């Protein structure tokens, strides 16, 4: 089955940091752009950051303020999302998805969704 396996979430206090990982299972990431998405409870799945197959980074919405860092390690078939200075609004499930070559569009443009990893930020 072709999908991502996301991990690294957990319960963390406001102001803390987390490093999320997504590993591609059943396929390689060499030619794909990979994006992280955040789905808050009862809300739509929204893009956080994306990294193209050549390493170019696009950030969406509040992620542009500098708290989110996306990176990839093709040798490990893995994409990471570092989240610093966590806020209550960061609570939700984080998913990653892939599309060919470059970052574009919303979550419907991406594929290979996994189960996601839950992030819960407490005050």
Could you state the order of secondary-structure elements as H and E?
EEEEEEEEEE
Radius of gyration: 13 Å
Approximate helicity band:
under 10%
As residue ranges, the low-confidence spans are none
Q: Taking strands numbered 1, 2, ... along the chain, how are they ordered across the largest sheet?
A: 2-10-9-4-5-6
Helix count equals 0
Biggest β-sheet, characterized?
6 strands, mixed
Secondary structural class: mainly beta
Summed over residues and divided by their number, the pLDDT gives a mean of 94
Anisotropy-based shape: globular
Strand content: over 45%
Number of strands: 10
* Terminal residue distance: 38 Å
Description:
With 123 residues, the chain is mainly beta. It has no helices and ten strands. The strands form two sheets. It has a six-stranded mixed sheet with strand order 2-10-9-4-5-6, with no helix packed on it. A four-stranded antiparallel sheet has the order 1-3-8-7, with no helix packed on it. The radius of gyration is 13 Å and the shape is globular.
